[in-house]
Specification:
single chain, globular
Length: 174
């Protein structure tokens, strides 16, 4: 159905499922379904978001924040326990994907860079202009906080918390 936007759901604490939905000509609304409720029903949560939420641009942090990135250059964090916004960050480019690490950092993939935000939405690292074109998928985050990002052109970069460990094309011929 081309009249609706469909994005994979994320599952949070206490058996809650979150999905964004955008009807044509309207803002994106987050919805929650409490699976433990006597009569589960989808309910709106949070304010309407400007722009679309891309597939893979939602994550749940270890402290329970629902984080969503939009095509309007925004990363938005919602606290479902308090039913309130935690923070909003303009990242300067359309958000393609998000991933959350065990230590609460948020890895934000945009068209040409990877931005690492702390749990309060402040940028801790920015990695860009390394030949990364159109980061489509979320970063794969290791327990030590290092991460792997892959660009559409097949370039992979493995980052430590502060530096590049490995960069190069993915060669599956070996």
């Amino acid at each position: 159905d081309e009249t609706r936007q469909y994005v994979p759901a994320v599952v949070g604490s206490n058996g809650r499922v979150f999905v964004p939905r955008r009807a044509p000509g309207s803002a994106t609304q987050l919805y929650v379904l409490a699976l433990s409720a006597a009569e589960p029903a989808w309910k709106p949560c949070g304010p309407a978001l400007t722009g679309n939420v891309q597939p893979y641009a939602m994550a749940i942090t270890p402290c329970g924040l629902l984080v969503a990135g939009t095509t309007a250059n925004q990363v938005f964090a919602w606290n479902p326990e308090r039913n309130e916004a935690a923070w909003t960050k303009d990242v300067g480019s359309s958000v393609r994907a998000l991933a959350a690490s065990n230590d609460g950092r948020i890895y934000c993939s945009t068209h040409q860079r990877l931005l690492v935000l702390d749990g309060d939405g402040e940028a801790t690292f920015k990695f860009g202009n390394f030949g990364l074109q159109d980061l489509q998928a979320p970063a794969a985050v290791a327990p030590d906080g290092s991460c792997l990002v892959v660009a559409r052109a097949g370039i992979a970069i493995w980052f430590s918390r502060s530096d590049i460990i490995l960069k190069g094309p993915i060669d599956l011929q070996t």
